[in-house]
Hints:
InterPro entries (chain A): 2Fe-2S-bd_N, 2Fe-2S_ferredoxin-like_sf, 2Fe-2S_ferredoxin-type
Shape of chain B: globular
Oligomer: heterodimer
Mean pLDDT of chain A: 91
Shape of chain A: elongated
Keywords (chain A): Oxidoreductase
Helix content of chain A: under 10%
CATH class of the largest domain in chain B: Alpha Beta
CATH topology of the largest domain in chain B: FAD/NAD(P)-binding domain
Protein name (chain A): Sarcosine oxidase subunit alpha
Bound molecules: flavin-adenine dinucleotide, FE2/S2 (inorganic) cluster
Pfam family, one (chain A): Fer2_4
Strand content of chain B: 25-35%
GO molecular function (chain A): iron-sulfur cluster binding; oxidoreductase activity
Amino acid sequence: MTERxxxxxxxxxxxxxxxxxxxxxxxxxGVEGESLTAALLxxxxxxxxxxxxxxxxxxxxxxxxxxxxxxxxxGGEKNQRACLTPVKEGMSVKQQTELPHLVKGDxxxx
Amino acid sequence: xxxTIIIGAGPAGLSAAKILQESQKVLVLDEYFHAGGRLLxxxxxxxxxxxxNGLEIARRLIMETEGKSxxxxxxxxxxxxxxxxxxxxxxxxxxKSRSLIIATGAREKSTPLPGWxxxxxxxxxxxxxxxxxxxxxxxxxxxIIGINPLSMVIAMELGYTxxxxxxxxxxxxxxxxxxxxxxxxxTLVSLxxxxxxxxxxxxxxxxxxxxxxxPAALKLFPKGGVKAMGLPxxxxxxIIRINGTEKVESVTMQKTDSxxxxxxxxxxxxxxxxxxxDGLAPLSEIGSLLDLRHVYSEPLGGYVPLHSEMMxxxxxxxxxxxxxxxxxxxxxxxxxxxxxxxxxxxxxxxAICTLASINNExxxxxxxxxxxxxxxxxxxxxxxxxxxxxxx
Lengths: 110, 392
Ligand SMILES: Cc1cc2nc3c(=O)[nH]c(=O)nc-3n(C[C@H](O)[C@H](O)[C@H](O)COP(=O)(O)OP(=O)(O)OC[C@H]3O[C@@H](n4cnc5c(N)ncnc54)[C@H](O)[C@@H]3O)c2cc1C
Ligand code: FES
């Protein structure tokens, strides 16, 4: 589990107002306006998607919109960068998963 | 129709807006949801007791531009065309302007190694934003792979929140990175008078009573590294693999000699996050979209659009400012933004004055990204001047 830094030695203390939002249909809480990557990490969620081709877990990498490793489905819209998206009350975020193989069909992974 | 569109609401873009907005209709575009660019995560001690708090500086710049310039966030620019005026295509519509400033900043470079795609592996910059801006710990115990000014600064920042950094050492050698213990040692020494290098020169002097850059100093550098400002820096250790199934669980470390050749057995270090850091490179795709000529400069961080020291480019009314012109600190980026704005307004006197401030800051910068930076700047300026001769 990763923690929030409520007291920072140099930046001082902060207080948060938490709002609910949905991750894969389950209600979790984040700070309104913080990045989705931060909110999910603070909830102990590191795996943001599984790779389209080999199904391996992937998480945030650059956290500033450059690498697209953090892509998730937000409100039905695919491939949104979680690190560039602020948390909003009630938003629905879903993990993206392995895609069916075009030739071998749904069960095949390679 | 705007007088000037600025791409990037970092220190360079906002500083330009602040000047232009007094007499122009200005639009600033940024794909992040908060203005400030990379300032948002920056935090270090410039001098004893005097802190560079990037978030505070960003807030001030935002206050000074809000309402006076139009600032559109969560808006990515994906194409730009020139046809008498500039047309900027974004995820929130198309905008037009007479002048354009590219202030897109820098990206982080990475050296891939086995296991680098596991959740929990991130760039040092990602850890910086999480820790100082979002105030969420990237993990409880981390390993940093890559020794450079940015990784040293950020390692210290993690320390301010009691996140344990177990090791800062080198990546494995591969085709895109062959940083040797000697290179790393020179980087540490060239960090100027910032804390780690002071400690290292002290440490090596005690060890061998030799000057830090003397070849013997490298040999004397302790195998297990040194503790500088609480940072466990090790130039004779490499991380060769990151391990874990669902997420990072450990890294595999290999000791080396001073030439970087493996010696002795491998060891595992437990950790729950890993930061990869291979320095910064200018983010100049927009310049490429406009077919600007780019030049490669190692001291500036990579390919930069050919530009003058006055921030002009080959195209009319197109300016560049900030890290897109070469990797430097945020103060330089701010001055460069101001300089571009003065040039757009035709204020020659203010432009010359700002250029002097840039040169001054460059000499005295606390965070130096490359030891030959000034030389790199001179080379690009000489190429710009040659271009002028070509066109005569
Ligand atoms: C991860 C990271 C950490 C850094 N840490 C430090 C540090 O600790 N100390 C230090 O001195 N320097 C640091 N730097 C260097 C930093 O680049 C400068 O300090 C300074 O922030 C540069 O300012 P800028 O305005 O040129 O660019 P930035 O501050 O990077 O701002 C550029 C802005 O442009 C936006 N942008 C880019 N492309 C697009 C597009 N296509 N569409 C819309 N918006 C776009 C970005 O979202 C960003 O907000 C760091 C750089 C990086 C990348
Ligand atoms: S983590 Fe790189 S784009 Fe979001």
